[in-house]
Amino acid sequence: MSRFAKLLTTVTLLAVLAGAIFFAAPRALASDGTFNVSVFHGINGNTLGLSRELPVEAYVYRSDVLLAIVPLEFRERFSADLPAGNYTIKVFSTELGTFLPSMQVGPVELPEGIDVRLSAQLGTAQTPLLVTRVK
């Protein structure tokens, strides 16, 4: 399997799992109108035949307006309180120089008061896993 095919397989699984978490997240009571998200990049690109850092940029859109571009590399974490709303996330591989269509999440409605924790990891036999915790 080529490096690009392995990367696409990895990001496809991550996108599907992330989407499922966002849709299944419980609606909690909150009064500040925000939700909390934390993402940990735990995939060493060397295992996919790419650079160890496997740099990506997450383009975060709220109601179709670009809210932020978040660069992440292996072992980095991003955390934020964001206003509840409709979100789309597109991932750009800086190493491959392209957006990864299989890594798009959304559009999805994220309610206030939830905590979403995502950790991208590779399991046995280089199987990508997204370990999650939602409160």
Query: Cα distance, first to last residue?
Result: 37 Å
Sum up the overall morphology in one term.
globular
Report Rg.
Answer: 15 Å
The structural class is: alpha+beta
Low-confidence stretches: 4-17, 23-30
Give the percentage of residues in beta strands. Answer: over 45%
CATH T-level fold name = Immunoglobulin-like
Mean pLDDT: 75
Give me the strand/helix succession.
HEEEEEEEEE
Overall description:
With 135 residues, the chain is an alpha+beta fold. The protein has a single domain (3-134), classed as Immunoglobulin-like, CATH 2.60.40. The protein has one helix and nine strands. Strands 2, 3, 5, 6 and 7 form a five-stranded antiparallel sheet that branches. Strands 4-1-8-9 form a four-stranded mixed sheet, with helices on one face.
How would you summarize what this structure contains?
With 135 residues, the protein is an alpha+beta fold. It contains one helix and nine strands.
What layout of secondary structure does this protein have?
Elements lengths: L2 H22 L9 E8 L14 E7 L2 E8 L4 E7 L1 E9 L4 E2 L5 E6 L4 E8 L5 E7 L1
Parallel strand pairs: 1-8
Antiparallel strand pairs: 1-4, 2-3, 2-5, 5-6, 5-7, 8-9
